[in-house]
Amino acid sequence: MLVEKLIKEHCLSKEEYIELLDNYTADTMEKLRVEADRLKRQYYGDKVFTRGLIEFTNYCKNNCYYCGIRLDNKNASRYRLTEEEILLSCKTGYDLGFRTFVLQGGEDPYFTDDRMVEIIKEIKSLYPDCALTLSIGERSHDTYKRFKEAGADRYLLRHETANEEHYNKLHPENLSLKSRMECLYDLKSLGFQVGAGFMVGSPYQTNETLAEDLVFLKELDPDMVGIGPFLPSHDTIFADCEKGSVEKTLLLLSIIRIILPKALIPATTALGTADPKGREKGLLAGANVVMPNLSPVTVRKKYSLYDDKICTGEEAAECQGCLTRRVASVGFQLVSERGDVYRD
Question: What distance, in Å, lies between the first and last C-alpha atoms of the chain?
């Protein structure tokens, strides 16, 4: 009954999401997967979009309890890419057919607003046909405005959880869910294509908090949603916590595709790390984006948010070739397009 209602109305109440998550079966998952796949094909056909990920700094001023590059992790081998190294990564990606670059890093005070504006302008001047995505955490409205005016197109900022109590168990006191939400709405108001998301199976997460995530995502109506299973890092207080469920991640991918039919949803590296066929399963469950790594191989292992991350030793071309084959193996095609969100 709830499955049919979700498929028909693209929305459930918090209580109904809890009931669905408490009682789902293999049959439930398959019905939702089939509908998610249908909706994805309705708007995007069999296309899977690539995002060239450039992890340009693993310095971070924050101490999020789950993160391997948190400030207090003295075992992290820190690095920053120079502007020249960032631009070389873009060139490598462009020559391979990438038309979206994602600059992702910790909240590194070295990369001031002025430095970021300079980098954004340089990338956009060299590659005007490409989309540029930033994923560098919480900044002020005015800073986001400067980034947008410099040419940034998209911004990824996972909300992590829509439940304040849960948020406070994952983050130190100086970080707040209220601030996180304000940033997301600031980004929307400035015209960014905005991405939110959360980890599946993070410590203290319940079906109730997951239901709140789904209600929030419907309300925010982001252009992109990134979810993946929680994977512990050995250098955090959650080192011994259980990994998030791949099965539940796939279920939630399908639900998110149904409640946000036009969203751009990645089959994440975390999903591929948790399951050798995780990205393929993600694509079949409703995802339509993959994010190969363009960072120099010399630094990839150092951007360690969680343990055992895949593809840290591959050159970009190897990574791209592997993904092309993987995507084709489940009936989709990797395309060289910007891959903007579908608009009516």
Answer: 30
Confidence of residue 128 (pLDDT cuts 50, 70, 90): very high
* Domains of the chain, first to last: 2-335 (3.20.20.70)
Is the pLDDT at 99 greater than 90? The verdict is yes
The binding site for S-adenosyl-L-methionine consists of 160, 180, 231
Q: Residues 290-309: what's their mean pLDDT?
A: 93
What whole-number distance in Å separates Cα of residue 137 and Cα of residue 9? 33
Annotated binding site for (3R)-3-methyl-D-ornithine: 135
Q: Which two tokens stand for residue 125?
A: 């001047």
Count the residues in the chain.
Answer: 344
> Higher confidence at residue 253 or residue 322?
253
Q: Give the model's pLDDT for residue 312.
A: 83
Q: For residue 212, give both structure tokens.
A: 């709140």
Distance of alpha carbon 316 from alpha carbon 237, whole angstroms: 33
Q: DSSP alpha helices (H): ranges in the chain?
A: 2-9, 14-23, 26-44, 83-95, 113-126, 141-150, 164-170, 177-189, 207-220, 246-259, 269-274, 278-284, 297-300, 316-329
User: pLDDT class for 187, splitting at 50, 70, 90?
Assistant: very high
What is the identity of the amino acid at 210?
L
Tokens of 5: 């209602």
Q: Identify the residue whose tokens are 């969680």.
A: 306
What does residue 6 show for φ and ψ, rounded to 5 degrees?
-60, -45
- Give the residue carrying structure tokens 């890093």: 105
Give yes or no for residue 106 having a pLDDT over 90. yes
Residue with tokens 């995802």: 287
DSSP string, 2-58: HHHHHHHHS---HHHHHHHHHH--HHHHHHHHHHHHHHHHHHHTTEEEE-EEEEEE-
Give me the pLDDT at residue 244, please: 98
With 90 as the cut, is the pLDDT of residue 222 above it? yes
What is the predicted pLDDT for the residue at 317? Answer: 80
Secondary element (H or E) of residue 105: strand 100-105
Q: How far, rounded to the nearest angstrom, does the alpha carbon of residue 93 sit from its chain's CA centroid? A: 19
Predicted TM-score of the model (pTM) = 0.97
Query: Would you call 326 helix, strand, or coil by DSSP?
Result: helix
